[in-house]
Amino acid sequence: MLNSKQRAYLRSLANKIDAIFQIGKGGASPELIEAIDDALEARELIKCNVLNNCMEDIKYVASAISERTKSDVVQIIGKKIVLYRKSKEKPTIELPK
User: Fold this and answer.
1) Which pairing describes strands 21-23 and 45-50: parallel, antiparallel, or unpaired?
2) 93 within some domain
3) Among candidate residues 89, 76, 86, 95, the one with its CA nearest the CA of residue 10
4) Domain-embedded: residue 94
5) Helices marked H in the chain — which ranges?
């Protein structure tokens, strides 16, 4: 669980990155979850774009992805979701206390 200072720090880092996943009408499919899980392990902080043809609510999609990948939702802004999970092998992002 992230505190507000950590969340603000991660939001500032997320401003500089592009969305690497697009979630469409298939929603949070098992293949997408697996790809997001791999990306979180490699990058720790990722951004996903939810397309207009996605039938599910963006908050539901974010919570489903977060739950299945054991990550934290840093931010939902418009149609974008920012996720964070500390890498098990080589952590690169140092969070403030």
Assistant:
1) parallel
2) no
3) 95
4) no
5) 4-14, 30-43, 58-69
Tell me the per-residue pLDDT of 3-56, one tens digit each, with 9 for 90 and over: 999 999 999 999 999 999 999 988 888 999 999 999 999 999 999 999 999 888
Q: Is residue 26 part of a domain?
A: yes
Could you tell me the CATH number of the domain that includes residue 17? 3.30.110.60
In a domain, 55, yes or no: yes
Structure tokens at 45: 């902080």
Is the pTM higher than 0.90? The answer reads yes
CA pair distance 46, 65, nearest whole angstrom: 12
The domain containing residue 43 runs over which residues? Answer: 4-84
- 37 Cβ partners below 8 Å, 6+ apart? 68, 69
Half-sphere exposure of 70 (CA within 13 A, CB side): 5
